[in-house]
Automatic annotation (TrEMBL):
Keywords, in A-Z order: Hydrolase, Metal-binding, Zinc
Residues that hold Zn(2+) 1 according to the record: 74, 85, 185
Entry-linked InterPro entries: Amidase_Cbmase, Bact_exopeptidase_dim_dom, Peptidase_M20
Record: residues binding Zn(2+) 2: 85, 120, 371
Binding-site residues, allantoate: 210, 269, 282
Co-factor binding comment: Binds 2 Zn(2+) ions per subunit.
Protein name, as recorded: Allantoate amidohydrolase
Length: 398
């Protein structure tokens, strides 16, 4: 089946009517979950499927083994996300395998399509949770204890999905199998449409991290409490949101976002007792911690002015990644010299790049918009991406 055909099969699964976009998470509710769909489709291609100790799903063409060629991505999404971010890499992997099988190709190296768990961190807050656990770049206890908005832990959710949380953690056996990892992904940001190219090779991923700012004040009555008597955490939270943009604008090429702000208890006629906001900060090179320190200073000053307290907690951080040189050169040569793209979006390939030769292919997104229902890739470009992936997998596994 073509990659577009697979995409059509999963279209709508996990779409959130309130937002119009997708809201799919690791170990999700059945109506959102694509894990079974993937297993069924992979088995249909004669692949051997296994779920690892961290909830990542591996579909092997031939027996699992060392020096494997591995491709894949994720099936979860951000809240209100698009149809391509994640799934495009997975369906292109399945479609590339099917095309190679149809052409009579037989890999001389083990070859796998993998689905990593909770890449967006949309439910449990830490991005690339499955690949961080695989590589041991997150403490297994910390991962097990991560909670979703309903207080359900990652361990509980994984356990319900049949993954034994007690076994989570670095999976050296599977990591050592990977000879090269290649992730195909929809382009996030506007680039290829201006370059007139359907496919690009990934070059770098900029450093990025997430910080939680917890403001505490005095919950109180909106009408009975004079302004002078308030310690309203909404004020320093609001001041911090504007400080994020003001301070990031002073740092070349910085991106900093507050996309989530949660007042508690959240009543219209109630002065909040606490307000939590999450900062997503990304600066190429070493600049992210410095920017976050500036923002934290502004948050503390604003909290003090309002008689509130603030606690800042780093929830995740990964430094700049440059993809494997030799692989980038090979990809470029095998695909006829497509453009190279840096990206501000994080990916499982960027986590793996610290452990195995890793690379990325991007497929043109004419809107340049991602993490939104407007994220898009033309069917012709989707097929060009899957064909490019098939070419590269064949070259690597021949
Ligand atoms: O947030 C990111 O950069 C990625 O889409 N997970
Ligand atoms: Mn969901
Ligand atoms: Mn994403
Ligand atoms: Mn993604």
């Amino acid at each position: 089946m073509t990659a577009s055909g697979f995409l059509a099969e999963i279209a709508g699964v996990g779409r959130d009517p309130k937002r119009g976009g997708y809201s799919r998470h690791a170990f999700d509710a059945p109506e959102h979950d694509l894990r079974e769909w993937f297993v069924e489709r992979a088995l249909g291609l004669g692949l051997d499927v296994e779920t690892d100790r961290n909830g990542n799903i591996w579909a092997w063409w031939g027996p699992p083994g060392r020096n494997a060629v591995v491709t894949g991505s994720h099936l979860d999404s951000v809240p209100g996300g698009g149809a391509f971010d994640g799934p495009l890499g997975v369906v292109s992997g399945l479609s590339a395998v099917e095309a190679l099988q149809t052409n009579g190709f037989r890999p001389r190296r083990p070859l796998a399509v993998v689905v990593f768990a909770e890449e967006e961190g949309g439910r449990f807050g830490v991005p690339c949770l499955g690949s961080r656990l695989l590589t041991g770049t997150i403490d297994a206890d910390k991962a097990r204890g991560l909670r979703d908005a309903d207080g359900v832990t990652f361990a509980e959710a994984a356990g319900k999905a049949g993954v034994d949380p007690a076994r989570m953690g670095r999976d050296t056996e599977r990591l050592d199998r990977i000879g090269q990892f290649l992730e195909l992904h929809v382009e996030q940001g506007r680039g290829l449409i201006d370059l007139g190219a359907p496919v690009a090779v990934g070059s770098t991923v900029i450093a990025h991290g997430r910080w939680r700012f917890s403001f505490a004040g005095q919950g109180n009555h909106a009408g009975a409490t004079l302004l002078a008597d308030r310690a309203d955490p909404m004020l320093p939270a609001a001041a911090t949101v504007t400080a994020v943009r003001r301070l990031a604008a002073q740092v070349p090429d910085a991106r900093a976002t507050v996309g989530r702000l949660v007042p508690t208890p959240g009543g219209t006629n109630v002065i909040a007792s606490t307000v939590d906001l999450w900062l997503d900060a990304r600066v190429p090179g070493q600049g992210t911690p410095g920017l976050v320190a500036e923002i934290s200073r502004a948050a503390s000053e604003a909290a003090q002015e309002e008689g509130c307290r603030v606690e800042v907690t780093r929830e995740s951080y990964s430094g700049d990644v440059v993809f494997d040189d030799a692989l980038r050169r090979d990809l470029g040569g095998w695909l006829g010299g497509p453009p190279e793209l840096p990206t501000g979006a994080g990916h499982d390939a960027a986590i793996l790049a610290g452990f195995v030769p890793a690379g990325m292919l991007y497929v043109r997104n004419p809107t340049g918009i991602s993490h939104s229902p407007e994220e898009f890739a033309e069917a012709g470009d989707v097929e060009a991406g899957a064909a490019a992936l098939a070419t590269v997998l064949e070259r690597l596994a021949r």
